[in-house]
Automatic annotation (TrEMBL):
Active site: D134
Known role: Catalyzes the conversion of (8S)-3',8-cyclo-7,8-dihydroguanosine 5'-triphosphate to cyclic pyranopterin monophosphate (cPMP).
UniProt GO MF annotations: cyclic pyranopterin monophosphate synthase activity
Assembly and oligomerization: Homohexamer; trimer of dimers.
Enzyme class (EC, first level): lyase
Domain Molybdopterin cofactor biosynthesis C (MoaC): 21-156
Protein name: Cyclic pyranopterin monophosphate synthase
Organism this protein belongs to: Pulveribacter suum
Pathway: Cofactor biosynthesis; molybdopterin biosynthesis
Matching PANTHER family: CYCLIC PYRANOPTERIN MONOPHOSPHATE SYNTHASE (PTHR22960:SF29), MOLYBDOPTERIN COFACTOR SYNTHESIS PROTEIN A (PTHR22960)
Alphabetized UniProt keyword annotations: Lyase, Molybdenum cofactor biosynthesis
Amino acid sequence: MTDPSPASPLTHFDAQGQAHMVDVGAKAATHRVAIATGRIHMQPATLALIESGSAKKGDVLGVARIAAIMAAKKTSDLIPLCHPLALTRVAVEFELLRGASSVQCTATVETVGPTGVEMEALTAVQVALLTIYDMCKAADKRMVMEGVRVLEKHGGKSGSWVG
């Protein structure tokens, strides 16, 4: 069993060591921002299909962007104990890295609320990468997703953090 003592940095356990949703009701609503990133590696021919817009399933990056935004908005439905948040902004950017034969995805998520948006930013990136995989798997089954991580966060009691 996980140690529920006050010294524990884990906050999703009650006094009996049971998982629970943290009460953020008394926390001040502040502007919060999280930026996450990750990439998917593929064969050069697959990247060329994405870049030219000639993938059989259509506009890969356009669909991946919409999927990422939708996922960020539904994070609390996907991740247990995650608070539902009213997001004020979700921006998803893609960079084609020809030399590495990969697509880098970066998501910036913002809210004004009592808790951060790191999980929403991470979820947006991962779903964007999964969507790219799904739309291109017929051409390239060996794609690899990696490096999904939080780059930075701002706002809230703990202030800013840049990784």
